[in-house]
Design a protein that fits this description.
- With 446 residues, the chain is α/β, with parallel strands linked by helices.
- The chain is built from 14 helices and 23 strands.
- The protein is 28% helix and 24% strand.
Length: 446
């Protein structure tokens, strides 16, 4: 039995392909199922089972359509509430897999009420635990994603689930769906896979012997999570569909302007310096990269099509797939902003600077306006004296009232990425941002 992880860095998640001779099992596949079908074909294996650990909150599942396309059995937690046909996984009701492999569902509520982990064994030997959003590497799945009214109860259940899993043999591999970079984790996790023995020795949550202390640790100090999460569970219960091969229209300036007039979102995926030098007024700049899709899902209207602005060498299909995984639809792409400017349409722009330049500015003028757009935990850990704090998503409702519009405002985060995103939102409030695009608060706070 071989376990092959397929990481989706932008969401901090992993799908797993398990091969057993000429057969295979896939756990928690995402919506772009073509890449998994290619893996099956390359290895010459037949898919027999598709397993889902829970109704995902951070992406649209590809499990239903992958099972349909391959003739595999689709297995979901018995209490998932899915509105389509599936094989229900009941606690400890062993499912026969390919060859000598067995699949044992383990009800592990906590991340969601019906959450189910899957223990795969070969013969009598436990080999791999697919723990979804329950036991993670050095962490555990969040218990607050279904709302505050369920968070305490789910955290109590998560305490029991982690201890149930910790009772498995030490050598059992641990393969979680969520990992570093996912907003579904309650704390950081550096590695992507582990073993039960390593987690018992190193996971701080397994050293907490009191359930109340565990709940406190799980529910305190959580950062906000993207607003698009509110739509994922319902889509995944009603009937998620696979993502088709994107066919992206090339748009001219007039067509982009028409989309803006209709209230659609214009998303500029070029690098932060290109966006700063000139961009379509009203557009939001989010660099293509590991955080591209989550920020887009957080800041853009989920129900409206998205117009992309990309550089000539940017991969528009890859960008469309990133957005499609979370349910955003791309209406078309404009390559750069030169054509926009050639039609005498105005471009918006702002200055960029480094953290060293901000330090020099503060030395000359301690009253310089500084807006820190990092998350609340980062701000609490340390910030520039006299700076104002507003987390990036909160700028959707406007700039903080303490910022004076007649003066430039220096915008800073940790690395420059979020500060650049914030700049596009601040322009809508009539402010003049100066974005610290290189470096960040850690350079100025010891």
């Amino acid at each position: 039995m071989e376990v092959i992880g397929v990481r989706t860095a932008s969401l901090g998640d992993a799908t797993y392909l398990v091969t057993v001779g000429e057969h295979a099992i896939i756990v928690d596949p995402q919506r772009d199922i073509g890449r998994f079908q290619e893996m099956l074909e390359e290895r010459g294996v037949t898919l027999t089972h598709v397993l889902e650990t829970h109704m995902h909150n951070d992406y649209i599942s590809g499990g239903r359509d992958l099972a349909k396309a391959t003739g595999a059995e689709l297995i979901l937690p018995a209490g998932s509430g899915a509105g389509f046909a599936f094989v229900p996984a009941f606690h400890r009701e062993v499912i026969a897999g390919p060859g000598l492999v067995t699949i044992e569902p383990l009800h592990t509520p906590g991340h969601t009420p019906a959450h189910t982990s899957y223990l795969m064994s070969s013969g009598d030997e436990a080999k791999a635990l697919f723990s979804g959003g329950s036991l993670l590497v050095g962490a555990a799945g969040r218990s607050d994603l279904l709302g505050d009214e369920f968070a305490h109860q789910l955290a109590v259940l998560q305490y029991g689930s982690l201890r149930r899993l910790a009772a498995l043999p030490d050598e059992t591999g641990v393969y979680p769906t969520h990992g570093e970079g996912s907003f579904c984790t309650a704390s950081g996790a550096g590695r992507t896979t582990s073993t039960i023995g390593v987690e018992k020795a190193e996971n701080p949550l397994l050293s907490i012997s009191d359930v109340d202390a565990f709940v406190e640790s799980q529910l305190s100090g959580l950062v906000p999570y993207p607003s698009y999460y509110q739509y994922m569970g319902g889509i995944n219960r009603r009937g998620p569909t696979a993502l088709a091969e994107p066919k992206i229209l090339e748009l001219g300036p007039g067509e982009v302007a028409g989309h803006l007039d209709a209230g659609d979102s214009v998303l500029d995926g070029r690098d932060r310096y290109a966006f700063a030098a000139g961009h379509v007024p009203g557009s939001v700049g989010i660099e293509l990269g590991d955080s591209f899709a989550p920020w887009a899902g957080w800041l853009l209207d989920f129900h409206s099509p998205v117009v992309l602005v990309l550089g000539p060498d940017d991969d528009v299909s890859a960008a469309a797939v990133e957005l499609g995984r979370i349910g955003l639809t791309v209406a078309g792409v404009m390559r750069g902003v030169e054509a926009w400017a050639r039609q005498d349409r105005p471009l918006a722009s702002y200055r960029t600077a480094s953290s060293a330049e901000l330090a020099a500015q503060l030395a000359m003028n301690p009253g310089t306006q500084v807006l820190d757009v990092r998350d609340p935990l980062e701000w609490k850990a340390g910030h520039i004296e006299g700076s104002v704090h507003t987390y990036v998503p909160d700028l959707l409702t406007g700039a903080p009232s303490s910022i004076v519009a007649e003066q430039p405002v220096w915008v800073i985060c940790r690395t420059g990425n979020r500060a650049s995103i914030a700049a596009g939102l601040l322009e809508g409030s009539g402010l003049e941002p100066v974005v610290v695009a290189k470096g960040g608060v850690p350079d100025l706070v010891s």
